[in-house]
User: Fold these one by one.
Assistant:
Number 1:
Amino acid sequence: EMVPWIRGWGADVEVIKPQKLKDAIYTDVYRLNRIYNIETNQPKSLLSRLLRCWGKTGNEDWNFHPALFHMLDVGHVAQQLLNSPASSRWRRVLGKTLNAEPETLVNWLPWLIAIHDIGKISVPFQAQNAEQKSRLEAEGFAFGRWKSKDQLYHTYVGQVFLKNELSDMGLPRRLLRAWQEVIGGHHGIFAEESLGSVMRTLNYIQEPEEWKQLRAKACQILQGYLLHQIPSQWPEPTNISAAIMALTGFTILCDWLGSDGRFFSPQPYTDLFDYILISRQSAQKAVAEAGFFQPGYSDVPTFFEQLFPHCVPARPLQQAI
């Protein structure tokens, strides 16, 4: 009930907090700018353009969660799960499959996890929602020759980014291959499209160069906030299939928790530096609410014969598992 009263003061007051009230007033001001077609003469920075790219949508066409913010959310969830007081299970399993020291994972793996949705910063993804596409076009974004028939899943674009656009990080071949498969499969189905075919589609729609610049900027920001320490020697998994499955499963878990609207609400007008703290705190709450900070203990036996006495003797595969 305070919002109309605050609106009445116009530019004579500034809302400092709480954040939700600040967002509500900011939203009203932004919508007024659009209604009256008010444009500032200041050139828009690449960062400000990046934060206009949606990753999740709200109930209105002006309400969305920036793709960069969503990737930060998922990366921060990974940080929580790879650090104490979360179970050491994640660190042990991932350390074993990636051939890495478990305690070092928190320093670099959240960056890899966060990049999972880099393909959303592309013409095919940003254009698939008609309301968001109209908003972006009104804000000066170009979509090349894209037509509704030019559907291209964002996981494919993410794989192309990893192969052709990511700056050389010195990643070993097996780790890079596993990471590429994770980006393609984090929605539960591994990518089947060839990268050559994806590149031909991107070339056909003539995706403007700005989109490649926006992807590079997003990667740079994620690297700055989530890649705390580059390993002296990047690990290289010995069993690439195991590495792919472990990484994919962990990414899906982080993505699921990082998409929970109870903790990660749309923030279309929040400053990046302000949102970093919001995202970290929200990730801690989301992981805690999911029960992953609670110590686990079970007195259930672990031998197959005790768990399934009616299935004895166990088949070789059952015994191996």
Note: The longest helix spans residues 209-226.
Number 2:
Amino acid sequence: MKNVDLGPIFIGGPDRCGKTTLQAFLTSHSRIAIPDVGSNMWTYFYGQYGDLGRPENFEACLAAMLSYKHVLFLNPDPGRIRAEFWAGEPTYGRLFALFHQHFAARVGKPRWGVQTGLIERYADRVFAAYPGAKMIHMIRDPRDRYQASLALWPNGRGRAGGASARWLYSMRLARRSRRRYPGQVHIVQYERLVRETEATLQEVCAFIGEDYEPAMLAMGGAPERRARLTRGREVDPTASPLSTEHIGLFRQRVPPAEIAFMQGILKKELAALGYTLEPVSLSPAQRLRLRLIDWPLNLARLGGWLAVEFLQQHDPARFGRRPDPRMIVEAEPAGAADRPAGTLDQTTIS
């Protein structure tokens, strides 16, 4: 039996890098509870309401959290959270932990975890709040990550410049955290998770201090995720649901000029991670356009993304990130905030 006091588990990295897939494997462990939607508490609420030791600030923060669908997915009990929060140190870290501790207890597991895109932004604060925490950083070929992002958001404004900035920023933060917190940060490449699933999961379990459970491989604790990953394929019910079909799709689906830009900007990082450069064939006219228009434009997008990120990260009270309005629910009637846990209809969460 493992120590029940092991710290929480954080899964980070950019979007479309396999965080939800790893979450599905880990939440299939008998001791680990990680919600299948990212609660994004650090991203959208940390530092935005001032000192939580002031009751009015705490109530404003709690009200904002209770209006966010990803937090409501945890079926929180506001009355219990209030009581337990004021019984200890009034910090953001403690407040966030209470939601996840209660969720884990309700599903009967002793250890809680979180998956949140770019949680590595907050590594220093996370490890200060939870000294025993473990952070797993998912990384994927940035060209495939960009292709997967385009599939969901084809009209994204950042294009290859913003995608390169996001990936590079995340990768550098992961390496910094691994140096600063030895033994507490582990980098997992999506491609290896797909190709060597069991060996990778065994390493992850060793890293977080848990015994590997063979049943994890079948993703039994996340049947909906497994069904989605195996759609259209016949897969042994005891085997991993992962497939290599999504590796290398960028070659057919990302415009050559954007591949050329990403490879030019990320050349060293790609080589360090074992990703090979793709030969890119451009006509003379395309090369001229890349040099005069596409490259400067994407470089500006890269710089713009980093500039906005700097402001949001260093002054959350003024420039803090906000959830998509579609993820906000209307304020509840007076007294509804003290409803018991388990009364939220989770079908309303997308």
Note: Strands lie at 9-12, 32-33, 111-115, 134-139, 185-189.
Number 3:
Amino acid sequence: MTPAELFERLALGEDSRHQFKADVKNDTSLAAEMMAFANSGGGYLILGVDDHGQVVGLTPAQIRRLNQLIANTAAQKIRPPLNPVTENIRLDGGIVMLVTIANSITKPHTDLQGAIWVKFGADKRRASREEMQRLFQSSSLVHADVVPVDGTTLADFDTKSFQAYFQARYEMEITESKLPLPQLLNNLNLAQNGTLNLAGLLLFGQDPQRWRPQFMIKGMTYPGTEIDLDTYMDCQDIFGAFPDLFRQAVAFVLRNLRHLQDGQGINSKGRPEIPRLVLEELLVNALVHRDYFIAAPIRVFIYSDRVEIISPGHLPNHLRIEHIQHGITNQRNPVLASHASHLLPYQGIGTGITRALRAYPAITFTDDRDGNQFKVCMQRRNTNPA
């Protein structure tokens, strides 16, 4: 960072990526600051600057002490250790130390008492239970789809649907496996000791939303280009297991789209303005790859000019929009993905987004890391209804 860039940054004040300190002497407080950055996407600790962004400067003795303090704290007070980078920059008013803490790939980091700190706006706080789950998920230490759903039993499992799935996938009847159903579900990672996990519930549950009401799809159609709290054209709360959620969500969007003749005869029903293949690919991706540690529904909003699919959770780890556009994937829910490939039009090899873009390029993606959501926007064709 150049002096001019740093000076401009100071003028903007503190935020989730930039913290100002005139000086630091307490290693416990320093450990919490660095850990919060590492657990929350990375950031900069700027020393020699007061809370208002005014440069107070550091003496050579302070710089030597701070370098030693930072190194010792990162190595001895944080688990696993961090590797911050320090840089001394001369500004009007004195020398400022810029401490860069990268977004960690070995998160979550804890202090010596086991506490996990995360950023909270410009400040920091101890991580909540849900945040800790997502941190473990980001390091592939735990996945939401294998977490047991307390209270469920095999009575909540749709054995008939599972039988059809098992026969189609393995080309045999369940009885031919010569395993009791509880053991078979354990082996397929759908249950444990008679309790369904989230994958088992969402894929084959008789009434998944009885246990996880937030894991539904909420569809809304508005007459204009913005959310209208008073007026809507269609709405549907969609419930059920994955196959039901998928079919109903596709049907909801299709009935609210225009259909175009595109050279077909007058007796033809016409083609939807957004190809069905595109809708299917993007809805399947939302179901399989959303963050199930977040208690919120998938939302499908239809406006006069676009269709939006909003999924809880931003892209995992270091995955970026340009990556998914080129077929690079990171499976957040590996058990769901492995079974969904035999229940839905999902291949699980990262080609869904690229296929959708080839079929209909008017798609944009927003990875909202602050809002912790991922949005797909499909522009509607500017054509009058056929």
Note: DSSP finds 13 helices and 18 strands in the chain.
Number 4:
Amino acid sequence: MMGFQTLTHLAHRLEDSFKVLKTGKSEVDEDLKRLLLSSVDCLREVVALNRQGATVEEQWLEAEVNPLFDQLHDRLGDPQQEDNAAALAEETGENMIYLLFETEVDQLPNT
């Protein structure tokens, strides 16, 4: 909506990596730390370009940024649906399934 498609896309990819990490199923070694920190640096660069009103160069994205995020994805994979629910439950301290039914699903009338 505001023209931050590149930033949004990259932020979501990084967020997915953190969701996978939060499950504790992946070991955080020096290479993974390097990938994560480099990914954050790329986000900072995109933010700086957006603030300046400059265009994010496709060549830079294709040559440096996308391969970095691809390596991160190859290493961690996609978050699973159950991982997302578990992460939300940890953050809120509540079972998200029950919370959704309590707040989002109308009660059925008694029959």
Note: Residues 61 and 80 are 27 Å apart (CA to CA).
